[in-house]
Amino acid sequence: MEQGWTDPSMINHKFKDWTCGRVDIRTWDDQYANNMVHFFTPNTEEWLAFVRFYSAKWVNKTELDEFTKTLKEKFYRTDEN
């Protein structure tokens, strides 16, 4: 998995302590990484630990499903917009 970041404060200053971007999900057979999951979350220690744990990590299908579920449920926040 590869993670990319964007600075949300460049879009709106009220998001200066937030981070957003996407995670490209690559498989052995997919050279273009057409699968991606987006995130938009406060830049907390919990987020940073999640990033450190999964950064450039190869995972199996079960781990990928758990990663995607956690990313969507915990780190795609729209309630504080």
Give the topology.
Layout: E1 2-6, E2 18-25, E3 35-42, H1 45-54, H2 61-74
Antiparallel strand pairs: 1-2, 2-3
Could you please describe the fold and organization of this structure?
- By secondary structure, this protein is α+β, with helices and mostly antiparallel strands.
- The protein has one domain (2-74).
- The chain contains 2 helices and 3 strands.
- The chain has helices at 45-54, 61-74, and strands at 2-6, 18-25, 35-42.
- It has a 3-stranded antiparallel β-sheet with strand order 1-2-3, covered by helices on one side.
- It starts with a strand and ends in a 7-residue tail after the last helix.
What is this structure, in a nutshell?
By secondary structure, the protein is α+β, with helices and mostly antiparallel strands.
Across the major sheet, the strand order is: 1-2-3
Low-pLDDT windows of residues: none
The percentage helix is: 25-40%
> Kindly state the mean pLDDT as a whole number?
78
Q: How many strands, what sense, and barrel or not for the largest sheet?
A: 3 strands, antiparallel
Give the structural class. Answer: alpha+beta
Key words describing this protein structure:
2 helices; alpha+beta; 81 residues
